[in-house]
Structure formats: C-alpha cells, structure tokens
Amino acid sequence: TNNPPLYQLTLREALDGLRSNRFSAEEYVVELQRRIAERDGDIDVWAHYDPSQALGAARLSGMLSRRAAPRLPLGACLKCS
C-alpha cells in the first residue's frame, strides 16, 4: 500500500497508527516537526511552540506504553512541566 506521510493523517488515523504500533509517538512528532520547519516560514502561525517539549512528551509516551501503562494523549505530558 502507498501510505501518506504522517503529517497528512487525520487525528483518527494517527491515533489508529499509534495504537497499532505502525509508528511511535516519537516518529509522529519528528515528522510533524519536520513539516513545521518546512512550512512555518510561509505560514508563521505559532504563538508558542517548543519542539524539545513536544519531543520529550512523545518520548515519555513511548516509554510509558512500553511499560504497559495506559496510553496518554500526545499532549498530556505538556501540562506536567
């Protein structure tokens, strides 16, 4: 099959991909960050965006899921800091 780039997935498709382990939260966030870097100069829509915080939350989500903990939404850890 010809899978679209991760940044083109709907939220439902992204959630399904994460739950089925087709890709990790870290892979998803890295792809989104790549796309942001590619397009943000044209769009310039961010009031605040911290790439390291987003990647840290994705890594934490991956660590927790490997420990069989309940899956957290991608942004859940952002309020922890």
Strands, helices and their partners?
Elements: H1 11-19, H2 25-43, H3 51-66
Helix pairs in contact: 2-3
Summarize the structure.
With about 80 residues, this protein is mainly α.
Shape: globular
Count of separate DSSP helical elements: 3
- Low-confidence parts lasting 5 or more residues at pLDDT below 50? none
Number of strands: 0
Percentage of residues assigned to helices: 40-55%
From the alpha carbons, calculate the radius of gyration and give it in angstroms.
13 Å
Distance between the termini: 40 Å
Q: Can you give the mean pLDDT?
A: 79
Task: Give a verbal description of the structure.
54% of the residues lie in helices and 0% in strands. It is an all-alpha fold and 81 residues long. α2 (25-43) packs antiparallel against α3. The mean pLDDT is 79.
List the keywords.
81 residues; 54% helix; single chain; mainly alpha
